[in-house]
Amino acid sequence: MKCSTLIKERVRFLLLGVMMVAGAIFLMGATTEKPIIENGRYQLSAWGDGQAHGAFVIDSVSGETRIVYMYKELEEGKSIVKSNLYKPFSQIN
User: Fold this and answer.
1) How far apart are CA 47 and CA 67, in angstroms?
2) 13, 21 Cβ separation under 8 angstroms
3) What confidence tier does 31 reach under pLDDT thresholds 50, 70, 90?
C-alpha cells in the first residue's frame, strides 16, 4: 500500500515537471514578429572615373540604391555637385 502511494506521487510529480518544461518551451518560443536585424543592412560603395567621383548607399534588405555624394567636372570650370551627406536613408532623394 505504501509502495503504490509512492509510485503515484512520483508519477504525479513527473507529469507536473513535464508540463512545466513544455509550458516554458512553448512560452519562450511564442513570438509573432521577426526580429529586424540592422547590423550590415546598409552598405557603402564609392566610385570614380577621373572626371567624376561619388558614393552611394545600398539597402541590402530592399535592394534600393541611393546616391549620397557626386561631383563631376564639366567644361570651362563648371561642375555638378550632389550632396546628401548626414541625411537619413529615407530622406536621400
Assistant:
1) 11
2) no
3) low
> Does the pLDDT of residue 39 top 60, yes or no?
yes
Distance separating the N- and C-terminal Cα atoms of the chain: 83
Please check the confidence at residue 37 and state whether its pLDDT lies above 70: no
Beta-bridge partners for 42: 59
Contact status, residue 8 vs residue 16, Cβ threshold 8 Å: no
Contacts of 5 (CB under 8 A, 6+ apart): none
Phi, psi of 18 (to 5 degrees): -65, -40
**Single pTM value for the model:** 0.49
